[in-house]
């Protein structure tokens, strides 16, 4: 294990990313466990932080960790040192705390246990996936392993991949669009397939009652809904089920 870590992580310059990734997952698991214990009113678990009766959300602590870890990381010159890894880990933990309340920040109200709060879990899952791809050595748009043929050829390939990812995102294919930045064929598939019926692309380009709109809605019912139910079940298992009243 030690040799693998040295060969695949330390010697490839991914120490800080590895520390960020591990701390991010650990902090997310910890904070979700904590809020679920608080929600169950477990007597053996400390409650919310409420100095003077004001509930301090953990996004506040996350912002402090991100500031300290970010500035600390900039101050460390040696990216392979233990201090650099510690700063990256602190930044990763802070990022997890912030993204865990992403929906709260977006809506500017406490929607943590509501249906809108599911967005935070989705954002965390996407972040884990993208960081995992980076840790495996993949780079957005294939920057490090672009094919030969001159600067213009490389620029055109990168521009094509970027455009395909943007189109996939506009069509509501979030996972394909984002992961397509690393694996171009996924972005291309998302770009050429029908858009999701509630996406910006569909609202602008699929007239009401048109054949494309009907096909998009049929595809949504047949393929997308079962996948969404599976994703919802996984999110509930990891992060807890939203309150029924919300």
TrEMBL record:
| Signal sequence residues | none
* Transmembrane segments annotated in the record for this chain: 15-35, 56-77, 83-107, 119-138, 150-170, 177-195
Give the keywords, sorted: Membrane, Transmembrane, Transmembrane helix
Q: What is this protein called?
A: Integral membrane protein
Q: Which organism is it from?
A: Actinomadura rubrisoli
Q: What is the lineage of its organism?
A: Bacteria, Bacillati, Actinomycetota, Actinomycetes, Streptosporangiales
